[in-house]
């Protein structure tokens, strides 16, 4: 119900449109705008090279959609490439509002107590990985910042396999936070259990600045700051010089001649079929070169942990969590076996009807404050 009410209230060119709903056999079917591609699929196209102007056009439309949502006090909570759709006319739309919600109106000193079991793990910000239930629009900004990097590298920047591994990946690149650099970190529920025991310097500038333009790197750096309160808002992102310095944004004219449909699902299917075909040729004694697969996430059992909590056993994490969580929450607080296989898994615990009131009355022009 929450997703339906949200979708019915949206009216923006960069938000996917709900065209119709049907009910059959006690099931609800929703009909949306059709778009030919998603961003993940598009970036895997073997012959596609995006210019700086193309990247700016894609990212600006994405941020226009995010600004619209955030002005309406809506948090998407599942920003990733497969949820960013594009059509042949070069229009970008944000899709999939299954985890979205409106922000609660809080009294002074009150916590929203949102679930932290949202956002596909590669795009989940560090505060959620450390157990925060008091968050806002800034969690979306982290995910969109990850996508800005992907527009240049065509790969996810942080590729963990579960929560602890994901934190490891983030701190390896962005550096180890301290109480001095992030004062509120020690108040996060799982900080004492998961705090790093090895201080690492950030490699973000060394690794990514050579791959990006000066302004795009500066923008990404300001979106991917570890401290949630310091991340830019969606409106501040749109005001960044990245969009006004040369080269200017340019139309996505190449989309008109792009053959096929490029979505994450079909792309993975193509890869599997191609690898199967090449394996069969190899089995027949022919020399072939297998195409690359998605980079494998590190095996936690074989890497040195930078955390106090061992990475070698999922059970050890659960045991430590039992001291800080209700018994019924333990199974949902650490990735289970299915999640280890599928890093896209999430399991929100909020009521389906929680936060859907007054959606129609949110002012689109409401100023966006920094989330705290």
If you had to describe this structure to a student in words, what would you say it looks like?
- This protein is mostly helical and 372 residues long.
- Helices cover 35% and strands 7% of the residues.
- It folds into two domains: 34-262, Transferase(Phosphotransferase), domain 1, CATH 1.10.510.10; 263-295, no CATH class.
- Residues 301-311 have a biased composition (Polar residues).
- Its EC number is 2.7.11.22, 2.7.11.23.
Keywords for this structure?
372 residues; mainly alpha; Transferase(Phosphotransferase), domain 1; 2 domains; 3-stranded antiparallel β-sheet; two-stranded antiparallel sheet; 14 helices; 7% strand; globular; disordered C terminus
Task: Report the portion of residues in β strands.
Answer: 5-15%
CATH superfamily of the largest domain: Transferase(Phosphotransferase) domain 1
Overall form:
globular
Parts with pLDDT < 50 across at least 5 consecutive residues: 295-348, 356-372
Q: Number of DSSP strands?
A: 7
Output mean pLDDT: 80
Class of the largest domain in CATH? Mainly Alpha
- Listing every helix as H and every strand as E from the N terminus to the C terminus, the arrangement reads HEEEHHEEEEHHHHHHHHHHH
| Arrangement of strands in the largest sheet | 3-5-6
Count of domain modules = 2
Largest sheet: 3 strands, antiparallel
Helix content: 25-40%
CATH architectural label of the largest domain: Orthogonal Bundle
Q: Which topology of the largest domain does CATH recognise? A: Transferase(Phosphotransferase), domain 1
Structural class: mainly alpha
- Computed CA radius of gyration, to the nearest angstrom: 21 Å
Number of helices: 14
Distance between the termini: 27 Å
Oligomeric state, counting identical vs distinct chains:
single chain
